[in-house]
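Comment on both lines for my students:
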Amino acid sequence: MAWSWLVWPVGAAVLVAAGYVTATLPRRRAHQHARRVSWSTARSAIDAATVSRDAAPRRVAEAEQLLTRAQTLAADRGGPAAARAATEYARRADELWRTAAGPERPA
């Protein structure tokens, strides 16, 4: 009979643990997914800025500094906020290099 009292606290602990896992697992997965998407976007923006830098006819110091900031943030691998900042730096650098290249000429 004494063991039957042990079943209730163990069952309650199992229910609490199951509830905790059920509540936190979807949030954790969503956070990880958002982080992966943010960094994928940042890497894509950095790559686009690098291509624009290579195609630019002249150096643009401000754009180089922005790209360096973006690459530094990417190397540190922070959270989604760092990825968004890196994306913005890279996009701004890309715009500066595209402006330096001038208007596109028709082929």
In short: The helical segments are 2-55, 61-76, 80-101. The chain has a mean pLDDT of 90. The CA atoms of residues 42 and 102 lie 25 Å apart.
